[in-house]
Amino acid sequence: MLAVMRIAGSRIWVTGASSGIGAALARELEGRGAHVAISARRKDKLDEVAGGRMHVEPVDVTDKDAMLAAADSIRSAFGGIDVVVLNAGAWDQVRVDRWDSEVFRRHFDVNLMGVVHGVESVLPAMLEARAGLIVGIASVAGYRGLPNSEAYGTTKAAQINLLESLRVDLRRHGVKVQTVCPGFVKTEMTERNTFPMPFIVSAERAAREIAEGIAKEKPEVVFPLPMMLLMKTARFVPVAAWGALLSRAARRR
Asked: Domain 11-252 maps to which CATH number in 3.40.50.1000, 3.40.50.300, 3.40.50.720, 3.40.630.30?
């Protein structure tokens, strides 16, 4: 049986909260009675999201020392951190005819090292308390290779693996780990996309799904259901068939 967490009164830190999923989730959690701290680089956007009801802690997740300092500041303000939602992310398409290693570096710095820095900033205190929940926002894009997703998909696959390993190692210490894999969500990042985005949902819908997952302390949250079924099934498609199928689809597009 899944445990049910009491969101009301919990101290929750959300990174990447200046817009999109992070902003919607911060509002959803605050509406459910949580004490919410929000972080991102854009303080003006954070202030808009907070509306005077949240702790604003601007930070660049790629800066380890800044993340450690931000966590200390939030613990001082709240008396501790019960849940951290590591949501900051970068998304840019890769063009094989314009290969640029800097695109990969940016994705790894934000999507992967941002999560690593976030874990480092909360883990010692959670280990000491033998309690806490680490939530990583990955993506169904981490399940299989997708067109033009060489950088983004690679980091999302790495996030999924990282969180699964953490879940194994932290189980005996009382610290829980949750992997969130959304499908397409309407955000600033996806509004630049020119390709079809099946089963796309609003940021508010995504926030409700994630908040429910946090409340139930589920190890994995994947949504929406049609995208979950599609991408989970895709894992069983043979490598050669998957490559041929996606290549044909990309040419038609």
From this structure: 3.40.50.720
143 is catalytic: no
pLDDT in tens, 61-103: 999 999 999 999 999 999 999 999 999 999 888 999 999 999 9
d(CA 29, CA 17): 12
pTM reported for the whole predicted model: 0.92
Catalytic one among 152, 158, 159, 221?
A: 152
Q: How confident is the model at residue 253 (pLDDT cuts 50, 70, 90)?
A: low
**187: Cβ contacts below 8 Å, ≥ 6 apart:** 19, 20, 21, 203
Please state, rounded to an integer, the average pLDDT across all residues of the chain. Answer: 93
